[in-house]
Batch of 4 targets.
Target 1
Amino acid sequence: MRVKVFISPRKGILDPQGRAVEQSLHTLGFESVANVKVGKYITLEVAAKSAADAREQAQRMCERLLANPNIEDFAFEVSE
Amino acid sequence: MKWGVVRFPGSLDDSDSLYALRDVMGQDATMLWHKDATLDGVECVLLPGGFSYGDYLRAGAIARFSPIMRSVEKFASDGGLVIGTCNGFQILCEAHLLPGALTRNRSLSFICEEIHVRVENARTPFTRAMRQGDVLKLPIKHGEGLYVAREAELLQMEERGQVILRYCDADGRDSEDANPNGSTRAIAAVANDRFNVFGMMPHPEHAVEAMLGSTDGLGIFRSIASRS
């Protein structure tokens, strides 16, 4: 199974990278841009009996290592 | 007191920490390897600064699962003294031995400079040789030192006195300019709620001899050593 993991700064947590990118986009004339967040995108393959099993493994990986729940939110997608 | 300095792959301040403890402080200090399973009977564990595991994923996120960290966690839960400086502070947060987290500096740049911090709580094993309100001149050198924690957690920490050092100007006054990395509430060092685990972003081990520009780091080490 393939797993795509998306990690982003938790709402309310300072994201200096996102803020710098947002300011730069404004400078380039993209005045309509707001709420830029810079996160991480991780792909991995996992041996799993089913999609549910892969999701369960991904959840634990995110909670234990891939994301820091103090400062980050995570989401993932599982596919064959 | 017997100290153990943990060397992770990518640690930088391990030798300086050992030097500060052994040569300057005259303490019994030994180097511990990250793959060691035991702590060799030490009474205080020091996690040094550096870039353990290249800061991959998040600073401290990989080191926190090093074999020795199981022993460090057990040691801490039994009440043993643990101090983390810079990357060591990041590792302790990742290991949930300390509240909160350290993220990218507000400026997005790596900062290497001398700063000042004020002792906010001198009734801890890490600050007892100093007085509340004392101002220390110490160096910082980090890219990810912006301290964050949930608001409710911060309020609780302030109430319990877990905020141990706060960035300030040379006269000990609060000012935005004196907060080098944009840390929430200008927090530079915190302790856990049992006050046996302590993390600080500034480097006490680089401020132990006059020729280094400051000897204020000794206050931290003397506090810990005074326990024995």
Target 2
Amino acid sequence: MDKAPILSLRGLTKRFGPVLAADHIDLDLGRGEVLALLGENGAGKTTLMNMLFGQYLPDAGSVHLWDEAGRERELPQGQPQAAIDARIGMVHQHFTLAENLSVLDSVLLGTEPFWRPFRNRRPAREKLLELMESSGLRVPLEARIGDLSVGERQRVEILKALYRDVRVLVLDEPTAVLTPQEAESLFAAVRGMVDDGLSVIFISHKLREVLAFSDRIAVLRHGKKAGEMATSEADAEIIIRMMVGEDHSAPERVAGKPGEVVLRLSGVSVAPGKEMRPLREVGFTLRSGEIIGIAGVSGNGQTALARLLSGLIQPQSGTVEVAGQPRKLTPKTALRAGIGRIPEDRHQDGVVGDLSVAENLVLERLDAPDVSKAGFLRQRAIAEHARELCRDYDVRGPGIEAEAKLLSGGNIQKLILARVLENAPQIILANQPTRGLDFRAAAEVSRRLLEARARGAGVILISEDLDEVLSLADRIFVMHDGHLRETTSRDRAEIGYMMAGQTGPGAAA
Amino acid sequence: MIEVVPRENVSRRWQALVPVIAAVVALLLAAIPLVAAGAPVVPAYAQMFKGVFGSVFTFTEMLTRATPLIFTGLAAAVAFRAKLWNIGGEGQLYLGALAAVWVGTGLVDGSPWLMIPLVLLAGAVAGGLGMLVPATLKTRFGADEVVTSLLLNFIILIFVQMMLEGPFKDPMGLGWPQSEPIIDNAMLPQLMDRMRLHGGFIIALVLALVAWVVMSRTVWGLKIRAVGENRAAARHAGLGVNRVYIGVALASGALAGLAGVSEVAGLKGYLTSDLSPGFGYTGIIVAMLARLNPAGVVLAALYVASVFVGADSMSRAMGVSSFLADLTVSMSLICVLLASFFASYRLRFKRAAAA
């Protein structure tokens, strides 16, 4: 490392029961450096960051900081306030915003003294406007967080960290919900601040971004540091091998054979709701044996479309036809009509965290004869069923009787996948199915979706990851401001412009 | 400086021990007000113990006192599992009692084999309907059931008083606002000679068992737990959240209504407007002490009843106020809440200089 040091993690170790989540991890960060932290789910990234921020007490090891004058000191352990005082900021993957506050209040939260009777918000507002200008991350200041899209909320999170003049900024999967152009402008903005001396730890699964944006790459695997290198010397091949510890191949994709129409939406509109943008006159057809990909920045109507197809809301106008029959969808009739649903928020809608893994696996088919008899649960059959599915779908965790909330995000997604796919649904709604998953888990999801397609299912893939849409979808739609438009283009830039609601510069005519 | 640090890997056995430890601590803490009241501590405790375990009679008195608390405790535990906050147990208890009196004072007559189930059914239905109102307001209009079920208590109590002054008034009651006595064939049988313990206790135990089986072994119980723990996921999985709420409301209200039947047809024989000294509210404490576990409800009800009966006896013998019983029960609840907190978190003390 040739830059002056600012942060050094030395030998950080954390054990959870039998699991060694972090095993003597050393990590150095230089001033004005972007360090990318890569690793699969459960590799120890989050554990490491939680120790840095004092949320976990390390079993061994220490965190060292250098102040502006270059003096080294040790950061007290287990004290979040110490990390905040040391001006370390973090943008979490799962947002930590209060829905009933305005954007301005959210950013100010925790920065104001408790006892001041009157608040002078003008300087704060000016500073924030300035930040928005310089970073290109714009959000309406007076809007309520609850009314913002996921993408906008992420921007608020980043602004919140920037507002506190952080010296070290940790970005956990920051671009998961941004358009390629927004991501570019975010990187440009962060790059500008890095040149001014900000140091960034950048956690991501997107190799392309890591390679384009970082100065140095550290890879974690199974709680250990698997390797570290300058980005200039790295390529995707090396990094992936380091992360998974084996040769990695993307799922093979062969052209499908679309069959009859299984789902047809015509002229469907949905009124805007709480945390939900409207749908405007949306129509498409889905055939068996094909995957349609819906690209777009979150908060442009995807939620409404997914909730509609899940049966959680009803359309204002327009018709939904399943296998040629007009249908009114409720969660129950949607299931009965053969629609398998992989929800966007897997923790909120996908599983009941306090129920066991086995119970969650049968949650959508409690009346099936192998699950219950005369209203009584067939506990042994349920356990057997759970063991089978966990084996087939490689759901790992503390066991089938353990509460589902103890599983990692990737394993929760595999649990949902197992529950959905075991019924061999004719239609699969996969809403952001790989968000936050590592390569291996994401590849597994992709493989399963392709498998379902080969079996003859029609798949609707809603995703913000354009690479994912491009690699999986037979036909591509772009969602913007409640409108859905099909595109034949497979050009990243052109689709990116459509996602922003513009036609690209090339297609201006 | 004090810090709150979460504990990791708390064992189940330890979790189950928490309420027991809390109950013991609360009993020990009761020494403080005892001393303040000027009573000798050790004899007072001995008297309290004797007041419950001193004779067969005192013991059955305690069981008699525990009976309505098991019913109302189950009512709260079942509803709270679905996060349906039924605070209206007291009102549903009175509705159950009123229905029992309506059916059991001569509306119909027959053998005990007909009358007892009929009276129980009437009370359960009345209690269930009592909770159906707040539950419907919740599922239809999103009204907070904490407020509606609580406020309904007062409406129901005044309604009962009105009935006792009017159509239900006993013409032979010398002008007292009380109902006619329930006919003998509709009375729950006494379990032991010359003791007040009655069949309601057995029914309560059976229902606790049933509640436990339903919660842990049936589809409906699983739905209730799913709705309680994560309503959004339950809805997404097509579990019919509103139907679960309505079903739970009916069950919970019915259990509270049975508490009223048990008191009126097992113990008192007629209805007055002071039938319950807040059994409906105490049932909430019982359910919380039991951590919403139906089997635990029985134990918690026995504990609370012991404290009440023991403290009554102590106050008579030592001349201290019987409010000590309320105080001990309240402290138990606080102790349990604190203990559950300390079961999941620990405090770490640090010297400021070290930080």
Target 3
Amino acid sequence: MNLLLQMWGGYARMTRRWPALAAVIPFIPVVALWTIVAEAGLFPRAFFPGPADVVRSFVTLTYKGILPDYLQDSLIRLFVGASVGMALGVPLGILIGTSRWAHRICWPVLLFFQAIGDIAWLPILLIWFGFGLTTMTFVIVYTVLFPVVLNTVLGVESVPRDLGRAALCLGASRARVLWEVTLPGALPNIITGLRNGLGYGWRALIAVEMIVGTSGIGFMMFDARRAGSTVEIVLGMIILGLLWYVVDAWILAPLERATGERWGLVTS
Amino acid sequence: MKTLSLRNLGKTYFDPYAGAHVTAVHDVSLDVQQGEFVSVVGPSGCGKTTILNMIAGFIPHSKGEILLDGTPVNGPGPERGVVFQSFALFPWKTVLDNVGFGPKMRGVPKAERDRIARDYLALAGLSHAANRYPNELSGGMQQRVGVVRALANEPAVLLMDEPFAAVDAQTRMTLQEELTRIWQDRKPTVLFITHDVGEAVFLANRVVVLSKGRILDEVAVDLPRPRVWDQLVDDDEFKRLSAQVLQMVRAA
């Protein structure tokens, strides 16, 4: 019992000194378990590669330049799709959040189209746009759009009414109120929407790349299936997880905290 | 001369749940002279906040006129400053930028509006808090910022909607004393809404008693200034006026 407490104390002190460790240590038992299962030979190697095989494959693919290229393709697609999704979603969310009429008209339609999952659009998109960038971008934008719109509406509606009134009676025009009050007030929610949207978008992108793509991480994984290379498939899965962890934990989550907590929006 | 005049002001709205028209304010007429401090006191539901919201332009009035210097007012505008019960400070702006917001909307350059804001912050003893964010301040300090933010815009009339209702009793007394001091210093025209009889008498030149959407009566307050609670609690004239107003409010 005492030993456990000491270990816990040691862990707490260590992760406080090197916060990056807190992200790494939980994976040690996962990798250990994976190694044991792989080394025990329960499954044939070709079906169930071990960590060492995956690392080797990572080095080879990086060396050949395939992995960096594919990764770049995927990230650029996600970035373009997310940017367009934000550019459409934030203004639409503000319109719906501020205008009761826009809300009445758009809301049911929005929920209807939200229910049609991104992938459900693929058959008709393939007929319209074929196997290419347009189809992929459409799906990403579609996926990012809804979380951004819904969270922006939530953000706009959560701005206390008195804040807008205060700005008006200090001489702000309606347009200024939008810029000085509504937008900053909704910003924490907008970032939450972006965070959710990027998460969904990233998953959707991989799925679309498997079906439509000619490059990208999703394409690499699906292509590896044809060659029967489980190593590359597992490598792809690990990259997906790692990349999202980095983007979410190191960029999006701190951004969300920075806006929401500093302003103490809950209390005002 | 900037005077605020209410002429037969009325507010009727349709209550969809009751399925009937409800009249919150009947036929209120009131003149507030320049540099005057008028308190409006009444029980909750008497229509005092509705009157203030109409003067501020947040809601339309259904009857009568609101005149500022003889000109009808329509919608919110910077000549009518408002201090809110909820403080309504912009949480993403520093105290300095909150106070400088009005001048900013008038197009005053950054350096000049910072000077104005610092001047008003000094007036409220808040110079040290200029670069802090509202949520880092106590409730009393936040409302001091709320008051000087409205004053920094130099409104023709300052509308205060139960501004000290959300702070603790001790802080409230301090804020009331500071408000009388600031009023003596700058002589703004103030319409102060409250349900607290002592507060109404302590602050005002004139107390208007409101009941069920009508003005019941009014009482002139001639107490000497500066007003300090330590002296006034035992002052016979203050006690007499407070008792008189309280009687009207309770009878209402």
Target 4
Amino acid sequence: MSSTKPRDDRRAAWLFLLPVLVGFAVFYGYPAARGVWYSVTDYNMLNTATYVGAENYTKLLQDDQFWNAMLVTAWYVVLNIGSQTLLALGIATLMHRLTRSVVLRATLLLPWLVPNVTIGLLWMWLLDTNLGFVNQLLHTVGLGPVGFFTDETWAMPTVAGINTWAYTGYTALLLYAGMLQIPQYLYEGASIDGAGEWRMFRRITLPLLRPVLALVLVVSLIGSFQIFDTIAVTTKGGPVSATQVIYYFIYLQAFKYFHMGYAAAAAVFLALILGVLTAIQMRLLRASRSDLA
Amino acid sequence: MTRRTFNPGRALAWVAMAVVIVVTVFPFWWMIRTALTPAADIYTDNASLLPEHPTLINFLRVLGLTSEAEARAAGGSGAHLDFAGYLWNSIVYCGLIAAVQTLFCAMAGYAFARLRFPGRDLVFAIVIAALMVPPIFTLLPNFILVKDLGWMNTMAGMVAPTILMTPFAVFFLRQFFLSLPRDVEEAAILDGNGPWGIFWRIALPMSRGPLITIGLTTTVWAWKDYLWPLLVGRDEENRLVTVALGVFLQQSPNTQPDWTGLMAASTLSVLPVLLLLVFVGKRLVQSLNFTGSK
């Protein structure tokens, strides 16, 4: 016997929602609208914002630094997502075929728990040109020293490598969780039929993991586009803007030069890219649920 | 009777796994090892796995437990450091955000899942749309807002944007409440409980798992926060560990950073999450199952 007359929890509901709605309105809705407004003004934190039309956007499109930032970000995303996804897939497969150990999984998760700032510092020390452990190691085999953060060609691959180190374990565990949903009998059957590990990976793991893999890939992409902390600590965009990613570009425009309007316009660009990616993510989320249910 | 035969493929796989673990753990080992090395030894003693003359002086000086002269003698720049204070700030920051945000988002998630009121689905859709707004976009206006409110360099300003809600937590908890069986709640209605009574006495206790999951995830993310607290909480008094590490690096001479001090401070920034991993590692690992296969 459920309720006989239609329930209306209006009063209670709005009280339940009050804190979240206030938080949403004040720190999401209002600033989002304000951000769009700033992007069409000359606001610099000291003046009263005046409407300047599309000026910030046209300037942005002609700004070499902006295009450099986009290019550098793209390079980072390719290096980071490429290496991270491949490694994570490999590690997840190893785990899945070898062990269910919680201790091992917790160990893989360790770098993910550590602030990016700490990770940046840690690797600055390990990769230090003169005293760093890695260069000492290279020295003993007759190589180097490599200026990992100071060499223009090396700086970005170094930053990408550091973040791959930090997030591969986490990504691997997400993929591993997806693999655990694949029915075990498929592997047993294939094994009886004499299939090797590589064949099982190609024919069972990869196809059945695809929805999860796609989701994890998009989530990592969204994160990757927003790289900031590691760069703010290690290279500060250098050497010669070689690592000046879009987030850092916006940060400099806003908080170093106080070009708030200009920075807001650049943020609109980034928001558009990320908005598309998030929309894809939500579709995949729905798709992956129906696939694995 | 089955005997395990030696399988070269499996052995190779274990070797690969061992390499992964070493690569994961070694940097942390090297961090702690450097933190335990006297600054004077850094040029000569940097090849062995253990320091030749282990010392705690680096920890003492970054915790602000030595005099300035002692800190200088041990390789410091002489700038005041108080990592005990920064750690405390970070713990307060994470605790506040995780506890309050989880409670409020659970309330909202429950209302969206269970209560009946006009406009429910529309309001939910609008709140969830915020998932599409990247943090950098709201960061600039929120900075100006906090500045205008006079909350710069206060804990209030630091926690303000995230303490009330994140769209993800609302979404996640609503999904969970939708999956709770209804019968218990309906029995409670017949017993004369109002919405608040049902939420507090029945729905919340039944959701311990997901609440802990979202609370832990929020704690970890808050622990890692850098850009926002850097912008609004630079002052010594409210400085978080991450911000303090950045400032420490800046104060330290470029040509010859205070590596032993920096690594001691880094170790301190890892310690709390390491404890978290030791005590609730199992839950953390399981929470990945949970969010990964929603």
